[in-house]
Design brief:
Shape: elongated
Number of strands: 0
Helix content: 40-55%
Order of helices and strands: HHH
Largest sheet: none
């Protein structure tokens, strides 16, 4: 039972720095663009559209003549949408 406590404490100690880092109040460099210009990140589109768009809100299968760098981060986009609604 001590091993359970030790594993829990170790997990807490290893993850705590990550939670401290996300306690900011302003957007960083590309986050502002990714949220303000992306309707997926503002929660204005259907949830499933997040899985069809890249991080910037562009289609992962763009029409001829358009490009995407395919930065697929649906979890981050969904978290931005949740924060936007708060």
């Amino acid at each position: 039972w001590w091993s359970v406590i030790l594993c829990t404490l170790l997990s807490l100690v290893l993850t705590l720095p990550h939670y401290v880092c996300i306690s900011y109040t302003q957007w960083f460099i590309d986050e502002g663009f990714a949220v303000y210009q992306n309707p997926d990140a503002r929660g204005e589109t259907h949830v499933l559209d997040v899985f069809r768009h890249d991080f910037w809100g562009q289609s992962l299968n763009p029409p001829e003549g358009y490009t995407t760098h395919k930065s697929f981060r649906p979890l981050v986009t969904l978290l931005f949408a949740a924060e936007w609604r708060l």
